[in-house]
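User: Sequence for histidine kinase below. Tokens please.
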Amino acid sequence: MLCSGDNSGADKFVLVIEGMKKRRTLIVIILLMSIALSALIAFQLYWIKNSLSINEQRFDQEVQEALNNVAEKLEQQEMLYNAYTGLDYSIKFFLSGETDSFTIAPLPKAEIKFPEKNKTFGSIKGQPSFEYSFSDGTGSFNLEMEKEVFLNRNDDEATLKKEILNFYDQFDSLKNKVQDYDIKLARALNKSDMVKVVLNELFYGKRTITNRIKPEELDSLLAAELRNNGIDLNYEYGVSNISQDTLMFAHTSNRENLLESNFKTKLFPNDIIGKASFLYLYFPNETGYLLKQSAITLGSSGVLIFIILICFGYALFIIIRQKKISEIKNDFINNMTHEFKTPIATVSLACEALQDPEIRKIPEFHDRYLRIIKDENNRLGTQVEKVLQMATLEKEDIKLKKDIVDVEEVISKALDNINLQVEKKKGNIELALKANEHKVYADKVHLTNIIHNLLDNANKYSPAKPKISIQTYNLNGDVRIKVSDNGIGMTRDTIDKIFEKFYRVPTGNLHDVKGFGLGLTYVKTMVNAHGGNIIVKSEPGKGSTFEISLPLYNEQI
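Assistant: Structure tokens for histidine kinase:
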């Protein structure tokens, strides 16, 4: 027996070591799975964020493009307005005076022709006075013709010749200066256009922004450009100067949000003179719109993440559950081995004793050992029957041999089997059979096993001097059977697990409670098979109460 005990201790030590290794392996597996899951979820979240960012950038570009198009079309309308009102790039100044006038305008290239040097004029008759001046910043040339009275031919000829000679002496330098001016004039053509625009704004740029833009046209342009860019979203807008102290054409319920919006563009950007004005655009439901645009991406990613989490949670649940089942099965095997080993060893010893010729000569000893063999054999049969019952229950192949059964009669028979065990612990069982109707339609064998298992549990989990009570009463067409004890009791978590296969209520450091953890599973399964119900009430240290309800026979059809 000592060797057997030593082997048992060694086996338990080996099981503990193996259990620790399995536990470490399980922790590593769960840790790796958690890391992989976290990385996968992080990647999905990054992809979602990146997708939202891309959609937001595309939305910003489309909105800004729409605003720029609106500003461009408003400026085109401004140009059409100027053309319609007759304003061009030639600007005239009317000077005061009776006959004098001066015009600033691009001049065609002047072509000046002169007579030959030796040409002789006869006379000049009443020519009007004329003066031509040219200046380019480097020199000047003047041609003057004056009205003169008729002189004698010689004098007149001599006088005119002198003037013409002076003219021709300066013509070569004039020709060179005109050519230089043509080159400089070509370079100044572009500057000329710019100057004309500046002059235009100087004289006609006093039109205010409210005169240059019509609210209905602005709203229409905004709506059209947003539609052209595929944006169908409610918006608010307004026009403000650069200091944001004035808001015009406002179509908004929140001035602050509008002026803080990132969507804005400068109106009439080619204006050189005057205060700049900006068109602001704000979308109150921009976030919802962007999320809606990304609904497919968000939805698919959300479903994928949800499925991954469900699969991970289920896998984790299965792993932990399998670990618990493995531990429970190991415990079951150990208990079953112990339950079978003890009667087998007892039978073996009894057989060896009967082989002794001296004992066979003594009838008392002979009968005693035979009785021991019979009892242990019955005990083995009972344990095997429990295991076979559970195998049957797993297959859901329950065949009940129902008949009219008296519940109180079954209780009395079960008490005969349990009373001796309770009395050994100096306990007692109280009966309170108050049911007026106590006949049910049930399988008598299984019903007896149900009552016996409840009484056996009440006795096993009562440390000392068990106080067990059995009550019966009628309620709502049922017969109720209540079994109470003063045992160790159970927590809420334990109550939820006691009907699981192989589960055994923890008893701390005590290991004297025998069993396979199948009794209450069998009880619940058989009660349900009879159309009944079982409920449990318990508190740690205050005992437990099991209450069974079964339909009365007279209500069965």
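Residues 130-190 form one domain.
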